[in-house]
Amino acid sequence: MKTMPLIEFHDLYRDDLTIVDVREPSEYAQGHVPGAVLIPLGQLPNRKAEVPVGVPVYVICRSGNRSKVGAEVLAYAGYDAVSVDEGTMGWINRGWPVVTGTDVK
C-alpha cells in the first residue's frame, strides 16, 4: 500500500482523479475535497466494484488513518491505491477549496 504526502497530492490534483473519501456521511457533508466520492470505510469491501480499475485511486479520510486501511483493502483487491497523508483536515487547514453537502460528485 502506498502513501502520498498531502502537498504532493495537492500538486497533482485535478477534477478527473479518482478520489475515494472513506469517512462517514456526516463528516463528508461538513467538507470534502472536490471530486471525492463517498464510500465509508465499513462499506468499502462490499462497494469496491464502484471504484474504477486501471487508474490510481487516491483514498482520503479525516487525518490519514482510515485512508490507510481503505487503501490496503483496495490494494489487496488489485487496485493501484494510494493513501493521502494528513487527510481532509490537512486540506482544510491549508485553506484549499472544499465542497459541503452530501452530493457525492
TrEMBL record:
Q: Which CDD domains match?
A: RHOD (cd00158)
Q: Name one GO molecular function term.
A: thiosulfate-cyanide sulfurtransferase activity
Q: Which PROSITE patterns match?
A: RHODANESE_1 (PS00380), RHODANESE_3 (PS50206)
Query: Ranges for the Rhodanese domain?
Result: 13-100
User: What InterPro entries does this protein map onto?
Assistant: GlpE_sulfurtransferase, Rhodanese-like_dom, Rhodanese-like_dom_sf, Thiosulphate_STrfase_CS
Q: Mind telling me what this protein is named?
A: Rhodanese-like domain-containing protein
The major lineage groups are: Bacteria, Bacillati, Actinomycetota, Actinomycetes, Propionibacteriales
